[in-house]
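quick one before i forget lol
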Amino acid sequence: MNDYFKRTLALIVLGAALWGGWYGWQSWKTRQALEAMENVVRSADLNKLLSDPPEEVKNSVDLAVRGIHLSQGHEGQKSFDLDADWATLNQDSGAITVRDPDIHYMLEKAEGEPDRVVHATSSVGRVEDGNQKISMSGSVKTVYEDSVLTGDLAVFLNSDRTLTFPDGAVLDGPVLSGTASRLVWDLNTNILTGDRGVRMRWIPSGTASSDGAVDADPSSDAAPKNAQEESHS
């Protein structure tokens, strides 16, 4: 009975030691992964994380990262800066989903001129195609100087530097206000083009909003299909 008790006790001790070793190894691996992620986040290099992830996180499909910054250029010039508190990176597709993105889109400018920036925010953002496409959804708001453009969805394509509101947008500015069922903002030329149900209200400079305002409803037969307005700094 004594020997049986000793053998049983030895097996229990061995099992506990093995379990403790396995648990300690798992904890060590977890710490290694977290430290690797922390180093990547500190460097704020999301492209590096997607193209060459640390060994400890290579088997993870989705990676949650806190505090990110992403920049992309176009033809030698900076195209946009994106900041977000949280992001989820999918290593299979390369897509980055961000919460409450804060984006600065750069407008074209002549050499020596100050930067002209469109500030955009939304509830959710998704960066795809190697940072060449950004989809913003949920309370999308873009601001340039004193004009505000809002909508439910906006899609930015870095290839031609256009910001499209496919489900409609509302423009509110000191000179021009209006709505469109679809609106495209060309960031190369700073021209807004709306179609399918465009309504505009133009207030000439120096005119009170209650006097001299001109309403245009392109739904009439004499109205043009598209409405364009260029903003000059």
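fyi The two ends are 95 Å apart (CA to CA).
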